[in-house]
Amino acid sequence: MNKRTTIILLLIFTNVIAYAQSAALSLPVIFSDNMVLQQGIHTPVWGRGTPGQTVAIIVGSSKGSAKTQADGKWMVRMPVMRAGGPYTMKITAGSESIQYINVMIGEVWICSGQSNMEMPLAGWGNILNFQDEIAHANFPAIRLLQVKRNASVSPLDSVTVDAGQWQVCNPETIGTFSATAYFFARNVYQHQHVAIGLIHTSWGGTIAEAWTSGTSLKTMPDFAAAVDRIDSLAAVKSAGAIPYAQQLASWQQNLNAKDSGYDQGKPQWINAGLPSVGWKHMELPVAWEDAGLPGFDGVVWFRKTVSVPASWSGKDLQLRLVGVDDEDITFFNGTVIGRNEGYNKPRLYSIPARLVRPGDNDIVIRVQDNTGSGGLYGDARQLVLKVANEDSLSIAGDWLYKIGIDMKKLPPKPTETSGPNRATVLYNAMIHPLIPYGIRGAIWYQGESNASRAKQYRTLFPLLIADWRKNWKQGDFPFYFVQLANFMKREDNPGPSKWAELREAQLKTLSVPKTGMAVIIDIGEEKDIHPKNKQDVGARLGLIARAQVYGEKIVYSGPLYKSSRQEGNTMRITFASTGGGLQANGGRLTGFAIAGADKKFYRADAKIAGDQVIVSSTAVPNPVAVRYAWANNPDCNLYNKAELPASPFRTDNWPE
User: Fold this and answer.
1) CB 505 within 8 Å of CB 511
2) Secondary structure of 68-136 in the HEC alphabet?
3) C-alpha radius of gyration, the chain, whole number
4) Separation of first and last alpha carbons in the chain
5) The dihedral of CA 572, 576, 581, 582: what is its sign?
């Protein structure tokens, strides 16, 4: 080896060592520019570095330091800081340094749950007045951190986030963020004027036990075996997903082969001039269970011929679809223009100008529904063909449809072993890595996926709250949640309801200290599990925080059942949280049912008497029980003078 070669190798080696040293100091991605650090506590900051070094942190005039351990880990607990900013945060260790700018000290809230928490202002949901809301979402003191979906059989130390960092709330960043979380923060900020950081970590269609740690879940016999299975998978992490993926691919291949819309793997029902023999009519958008296909799971092909204006010829177009449940492949004039999976994914497909012809154009949508509701449903105004940023053409209304394959003709779909609906896996991947980031509290919107197990939820939901509090080690931080909205077809007569039972389980959770519940029994939608009015959801959560955390003297809850007693042929119901008095919004008081010892409920007459309601029915001369809003989608109108709705309840404990 000559001298020149030795020098070159020495330089390379030196650069490698220098790079390794410069890369040693690191923090999790949840620390970044634009972040909010929690005021009023010794907020933790942590990361990795060279073992034995001192890590020093400066935020404004606040300073903290700690030494790295033998494994390179370090944690600094900063002095208690007051709200303010923006600041620069500088972290140094030896010759290394990391700097974050535009850092605020304020209030940090974890925002979690399933699809109604996940529902963004625009996209697959499109909340009420979404365009105007986005245009006016200029709140530089509100900061957003969007955790990406992930599931893990063992606890993780890191998450991935949208844009790789915290973002400032503005019209460019808010559109894809949780609408409920945003309206909560906006309500609090407009009254408290303190910086608010929102860490949004949700996943649509998920169960509460997936968001709970294995250690806590094992204390419930219902979940002990499930946690043991997850622990077994953790020992061989790569063993669970691959067989399932292979099984699913084989099952899907079999489905496609038996789909009448295909011939030897090629789609046949996409050609122009296809005869309409055997095709039926359906008005879209609609869930096909409500339009002639009750209980159907499988593949349905939809087609429609649309007359395109001559002025659109030679222009790129866009096709916007309403909610597709669950999967679609969409064709325009015989060419695939898009495909997607998941009922909660936005569908906005681009159509190149070369495919567009003046006059008639054919749109074909192959929809595959694996379970539950199916079809294309939602707001008809969002089912459009348009020129980008210009005019739009409604394609709602009459479509032709034909069944490709009924799932009943196939073997069962393979059971998923790698998805989100398994005990602990979302806690491991989407909660554990956030701990112990300094927070004020949590807001939660979930329950739909546990509605068939309401009695179990009475124990599971308080367990989840206790689990998060125990693992965060920040005391009994506030935990505010949303009760299930009204949903599904309205029934004519009183009867059992799984959703009512789940709401009852949520109501009972108010016995847990420092919890609060936003009642939204008045703003749901019969045919959409994702209500568009997220403004009131967030605002009602905000009322609870403003009263309980920030000390505002305001009414934050609707009427809550307190007690009942029989008085002859009537039942007298007493309420708490009457907020200046009870009232019936919209005329005569509705929503009450009454029963005698035979446990048969009848719709009841009800009248307000101060903070009480007197309930009776000529069909029940000796009443013993009353229920209010006890249905999936009840007709009910009891409020307090603060215009907050009463929570559904029952005075009995009879098995449903």
Assistant:
1) no
2) CCCCCEEEEECCCCCCEEEEEEEEEECCEEEEEEEEEEEEEEEEEECHHHHCECCCCCCCCCHHHHHHC
3) 28
4) 86
5) negative
DSSP state letters, 319-341: EEE-EEESEEEEEETTEEEEEEE
Q: Which residue has the tokens 């699913």?
A: 248
Q: What whole-number percentage of the chain has pLDDT above 70?
A: 94
Q: Which positions ≥6 away from 283 have C-beta within 8 Å?
A: 291, 396, 397, 398, 399
Element spanning 238, H or E: none
Averaged pLDDT for residues 364-376: 90
If you average pLDDT over residues 397-422, what whole number do you get?
Answer: 86
Q: Distances in Å between the alpha carbon of 273 and those of 276, 303, 307, 308? A: 9, 11, 14, 17
CA angle 139, 142, 147 (to 5 degrees): 130
pLDDT tens-digit profile of 216-264?
A: 999 999 999 999 988 887 875 544 444 566 777 888 899 999 999 999 8
pLDDT band at 18; cut points 50, 70, 90: very low
Output the pLDDT for position 6: 44
Per-residue pLDDT at 313: 82
- 496-533 confidence digits (pLDDT tens): 999 999 999 999 999 999 999 999 999 999 989 999 99
The yes-or-no verdict on residue 22 having pLDDT over 50 is: no
- Give the pLDDT confidence score for residue 328 in this predicted structure: 94
Q: b/e per residue, 191-203, with b = 16+ CB within 10 A? A: ebebbbbbbbbbb
Q: Please name the amino acid found at residue 330.
A: T
What are the CA-CA distances from residue 431 to residues 282, 364, 618 (Å)?
43, 41, 53
Interatomic CA distance for residues 134 and 123, integer angstroms? 12
Residue with more model confidence, 492 or 50: 50
What's the pTM value of the predicted model, to 2 decimals?
0.75
User: Among 354, 336, 352, 335, which Cα is nearest to 387's?
Assistant: 352
Angle at CA of residue 452, ends 447 and 455, nearest 5°: 85
Task: For residue 528, give the DSSP letter.
Answer: B
CB 178 within 8 A of CB 149: no
* DSSP character at residue 289: G
Hey, is 442 helix, strand or coil?
A: strand
**Could you tell me the two tokens for 436?**
């112990």
Pull the structure tokens for residue 296: 């159907």
**Residue spans of alpha helices (H) in 141-286:** 179-192, 214-217, 221-235, 241-258
How high is the mean pLDDT of the chain? Answer: 92
Residue among 458, 471, 467, 455 nearest 423 (CA) = 467
Residue with tokens 């080696």: 13
Cβ contact 109:39 at 8 Å = no
